[in-house]
Amino acid sequence: MALEHAILVSLLEQPGSGYELAHRFDRSIGRFWTATHQQIYRVLGRMGADGWITAEQVDQRGRPDKRRWSVTDPGRAVLTDWLREEVQPEAVRHELAVKVRGAAFTDRAGQVALLVEVARYRADHEAVLARYLAGERRDFPGTVPADDRAALQHVVLRGGIAYERMVLAWLDDVLATLRGLDH
């Protein structure tokens, strides 16, 4: 997936400025596809030049004007073509998993340091899960989604919730294993 596709999806969900789009990435899309604010602005310019998106100038009192981006018909066609492409399984790069394997080759002090890091990492994932669950309560309070868009957004959120729960279960296993190692 290219950043362009993530931007097209986000702008189809809601047109916005580069600043607004960057904050959406920070809040939600960034858990699936990360990008710096600088990358987003650079890609927006390229997508605009390619005719995939268009900008409307929005006047702001007391602040510089902003450009509100929206997707054009050619941009929708690009997204539709991309949706039809086959998806290959991604290779997973997981630094913590390599560290856990490496703990077999260090002393107890190294293992204890890793235990502290795993606990910190677990707390980060617990916070992400809490944000996802709060977002689910806020955005999907009913049992039946309002429309197709909401149903698809909710299924992605449920995937994120399931993923975080799986990671937390694995981290609990890692912590128990590290605590139970022979000294």
Automatic annotation (TrEMBL):
For the Transcription regulator PadR N-terminal domain, which residue ranges apply?
A: 7-80
Per UniProt, the keywords (alphabetical) are:
DNA-binding
- Family annotation (InterPro entries): Tscrpt_reg_PadR_C (IPR018309), Tscrpt_reg_PadR_N (IPR005149), WH-like_DNA-bd_sf (IPR036388), WH_DNA-bd_sf (IPR036390)
Show the Pfam families listed in the entry.
PadR, Vir_act_alpha_C
SUPFAM superfamilies per UniProt: Winged helix' DNA-binding domain (SSF46785)
Report the residue ranges that make up the Transcription regulator PadR C-terminal domain in this protein. Answer: 92-179
A Gene Ontology molecular-function term?
Answer: DNA binding
Query: What stretch or stretches form a coiled coil here?
Result: none
Specify the protein name.
Answer: DNA-binding transcriptional regulator, PadR family
